[in-house]
Amino acid sequence: MPYYDDDGNELNPDLYPKPTLCLSCSKDEINEELILCNLNRLDQVGEVEFKCFAYENKFTANKDS
Fold this sequence. Notes:
22% of the residues lie in helices and 6% in strands. It is of the alpha+beta class.
């Protein structure tokens, strides 16, 4: 599925490095989350700080206290 910016230019998420935050997210590489994650990443290309309000740490998620 192609992604496009506001000017109609096609964007390929594979050409942009995945933020470190994404690598530790429990939603990383879940097919149902892929489109939303890619849109969030592509929207923030060039930003100094990457922000994701859907982030869930995969190392602490679902751990019993």
